[in-house]
Design brief:
This protein has 430 residues and is of the alpha/beta class. The chain is built from 14 helices and 16 strands. Strand 9, helix 12 and strand 10 form a beta-alpha-beta unit.
Length: 430
Amino acid sequence: MSQAAQHPSITDVSAYMQDLGRRARVASRAIAANGDTAAKNAALHAIANDLDARRNDLIAANRKDLEAGAAKGLDAALLDRLELNAARIDDMIEGLRQVAALPDPIGEVFDLKFRPSGIQVGRMRVPLGVVGIIYESRPNVTADAAALCLKSGNATVLRGGSEAFHSNQAVAASIHRGLEAAGLPADVVQVVATTDRAAVDRMISMPEAIDVIIPRGGKGLIERVSAGARVPVIKHLHGICHVYVDDEADPKKAFDVALNAKTQRYGTCNTMETLLVNDTVAEDFLPRLAAAYQEAGVELRGCEKSCRILGGGCAAATAADWDEEYLAPILSIRVVADLDEAMDHIARHGSMHTESIVTENFSKARRFLREVDASSVMVNASTRFADGFEYGLGAEIGISTDKFHARGPVGLEGLTSVKFIVLGDGNVRQ
């Protein structure tokens, strides 16, 4: 392994990870004791200021990763996810400031009730402790994850992908400078300084140091982490998202939502991969929409009826297409008889990520919201809104398709637990 892929002092990855985990545990206790809201917010603003001041350093580090990725033959979608440009640096900075502006969940006491014995029983929101995050490609995750873990009172260990090594280390340097400026220990946020895969294997097998693991990346990474972890995992496997255009949809809304859900950005988990169109409106609706997709360079693969309507502009879909997360300018289209057939298709092929219906019928919208099993279910809105920033969370660690412990975009509350508290006045049990 080249020295560019890890810090020169790392010779024993297992020992390095064990030490990193030990320091994270110590830091988690320190932030629990000394990390009041003012200190955490000061650190977040200091990190944002440092990122803003060091834009050229970030772009230069990212350029190294982009050049290396292109040389390795990374596809366009991965290179897009890897890129740090001025707008994405702006988003990182804005995310940090938004998290600073959010209410601090730690220490919140709720559901406090008197019991017949005279005691009061309630619950208090507390940090998880040490959060380990394993992610690929997107260097903005380093800032987003650090911000949310810090504000929720957790220490965190971040292990980015090898393709973003230089970018992640540059962001980490800003994080550490911001923490120190606010008087918080730098070990509250640690970015693993090696791309050796053994670091991941060690990280997911340290329950004594790490309380929860959040993998964020491709299906292969998440399956590997889930299979080998001795630490609880919050995950989503993939994002096969659908938009269903109902026979009672407003045509303009349907056109705008379906176009945006696919073309606003291709390489994200909340991008629509399959369009479902009601049979009654398909003949009129699909040709106009297909022309817009083709102008955007989207390859169309459809069911038999879709292909008949669109002619040579649509290739025949295979059985595998309905279960494919393309993360690319490719879209599957299926014509369905009604809402029930649309929901049946989603139940068979969806990934419990994000599903949307376009309709003006309130009853159908209510049925879709109630019956579709996904972490986000939408009415007359693009699936691209399934995002922590758009939901007002400031940023997100990831989007969980699990049902425990968190579901959907994981923000501050998803990074906390609760404990029961009991208040008495010398009460004893009879």
